[in-house]
Amino acid sequence: MFKKNLITYGSSAIIQKAISMFLFYLIISNLTIKEYGFYALKDIFKLGLTFIFTFGILDLAIPRFFMEENNKKEIFSHSIFIMLFYLFILIIIYLIYSILNIQIEYVIPISLIMISFIFEKFNDMSIRIFVFKDYAILNSIISNLIIIMNLVFFLILSKILNPLISILSAELISSFIIFLYLLWKFKEYIGVKFNRIKELISYSFPLLFNKFFKLINNSIDKLVLQLFFGLEVVGIYAFIQRIAMMFYSISNIFITSWSSISLNVYLKKNKENIDKIFRLILLLLLLLSIIFSIFSSLIASIFDKQHLYIEYYKYIPLYFTIILLTISYQIFGVFAIYDKNTKYILKIGAISSIINFIFSFTLCYTYGLVGVIIATILGTFIYTYMINKRSLSLIKENLYKYLYFYYVIIILNLGVYFVL
């Protein structure tokens, strides 16, 4: 099953990556550095919306409870309640904005992000359920459709609209179309039973606060750079991050293939050969990560036709360390999330975020952009190490040897930065 999923998700990832790389090239070519700096802050804004309005129920609690319990209609119905609640709040915000005539910079882009947010959250929830249910082909088709529609609508809209408005509008239209399909797909589970909100929140809220701390870990870098140097440096940093994230997109093949199996491992229903799976994952990650580290500057130059970022290519392998640490958490740390006692994760997130926050300000002031990357590496390492240790203690399989080998891969790739 793992190899079958690997082939399915791998084929899908090749298509997605080819299209997303072309789309990224178009975005970089059409947006100014300042506009791209704003676009890079989009995910931070959406995580803030998750924290305030959806309580983490859509993308955290519902997929987890949906897979384990028999009364799936009772669980899934809460997604409709959350969406209606958010849309009601959104209408109130727009009424206040209209009445008070508040002037906000980037008001149209912010509005597009806020509207598309709720559809994307529902889509993410549904796709996560597909992963757990082992619907690899359907999941791949939907993921490909999203990126294809983003590209097509961007090409159409960019002829008549500002490039920033065009990409955000394209993402909104694509997410809404997929939302309509998924709503139809899950129609049998839609109802009006909202009596388990408290239980779902008790599971998702610690994870949601943990997401807030992850937001600090993952976003304090951009916010500190914005504070000290402005949006242009944020745009430069976002370019470095975007190139490094290309490897994450590739490794997501392994992460997604592993997700459907990892839940069965936690529930003690697994029938797969775990040792064989991890040997294959680590071997492929070792080869791919070294190749990416060595050729990262070449990859970056393909997208940077105007050579706006050329002097910063050298920092991509260093930032790549953060990506590898994040992958370790998504492979080895998943069992801590499946455990319904999620308060421990919240504690870990708080500790690592405080450390990252302190180091980001200190090192950014002293070393600039490199200091911010180093601070993020430290915060991410503390978080992933503690989560991975907690996670592996919850299962009967001994996976520590694979975790230690993975840390060797990270050290090898960090060595590439200092050698090159």
Kindly describe this structure.
The protein has 420 residues and is an all-alpha fold. The protein folds into two domains: 1-195, no CATH class; 198-420, no CATH class. It is 84% helix and 0% strand. The chain contains 16 helices and no strands. The protein has helices at residues 2-30, 33-40, 42-54, 57-68, 72-100, 107-132, 136-157, 163-185, 197-229, 231-266, 274-303, 316-332, 334-338, 343-367, 369-392, 400-419. Helix 4 runs antiparallel to helix 5. The model has no long low-confidence stretch (mean pLDDT 77).
Largest sheet: none
Secondary structure tally, helices = 16
The secondary-structure element order is HHHHHHHHHHHHHHHH
Distance between the termini: 40 Å
What oligomeric arrangement do these chains adopt?
Answer: single chain
What would you report as the Rg, rounded to the nearest angstrom? Answer: 21 Å
Helix percent band: over 70%
Q: From the helix content, strand content and strand pairing, which structural class follows?
A: mainly alpha
| Uncertain spans | none
- Number of domain units: 2
Which geometry do the CA atoms define? globular
Mean pLDDT: 77
Number of E-state strands:
0
Portion in beta strands: under 5%
